[in-house]
Design a protein that fits this description.
Keywords: Hydrolase. With 184 residues, the chain is α/β, with parallel strands linked by helices. Helices cover 31% and strands 25% of the residues.
């Protein structure tokens, strides 16, 4: 029986999501430190890592503008020389990118997902990965979200994060913490 090969996907942990950034998330620094633990674990085990970097397409989002410090990958999760960096323009990290080719080249059958925002790019990428046949695990404490509003009601970031991850557990992904994953 062939073992499944795992890859870590680190989605959009970029400066604009941190304090003084253009689109600050709740708990971004804490989530990035958990993602850093996951990156170190994958590096120690010589497993593939794909760093995803979002670039705004003119006018579509008010952050991640090309040429600004905000678009840069945060220092806590900086790719090493030779690690894969996938540039994207949409929430789904597979759309119009070479992520799929990279995963296929590395015989990956299981993806472990970290990143930002839980309710947008993490959700879209996880659902797409499952639809493409990958087994998916999302590292809950290595993701972050933002307060949202609907019909004048404020939905706190923690509730947005929990609701989106809870929805993924039905079919799309296993959800665990960085510590839970590494110790398993």
């Amino acid at each position: 029986m062939k073992m499944s090969k795992k890859a870590l996907i680190v989605i959009d942990i970029q400066n604009d999501y941190f304090e003084n950034g253009a689109w600050e998330l709740v708990g971004a620094n804490e989530a990035s430190l958990k993602a850093q633990k996951m990156i170190n674990h994958f590096r120690e085990n010589n497993l593939p890592i794909a760093h995803i970097q979002h670039f705004a397409v003119e006018g579509n989002i008010p952050f991640f503008h090309p040429g600004t410090p905000g678009v840069e990958i945060h220092n806590n999760v900086k790719p090493l020389e030779g690690e894969k960096v996938v540039k994207k323009n949409y929430p789904n990290s597979f759309r119009d990118t070479d992520l799929m080719e990279y995963l296929k080249e590395n015989d990956v059958s299981e993806v472990v997902i970290t990143g930002m925002m839980s309710h947008m790019c993490v959700d879209a990428t996880t659902r797409a990965a499952k639809d493409f046949g990958f087994d998916c695990t999302v590292i809950s404490d290595a993701c972050a979200s933002k307060d949202q509003e609907l019909d004048g009601k404020l939905v706190k970031a923690a509730d947005v994060h929990t609701a989106f991850l809870a929805a993924l557990t039905f079919f799309y992904a296993r959800i665990t913490t960085a510590e839970g994953y590494i110790s398993a």
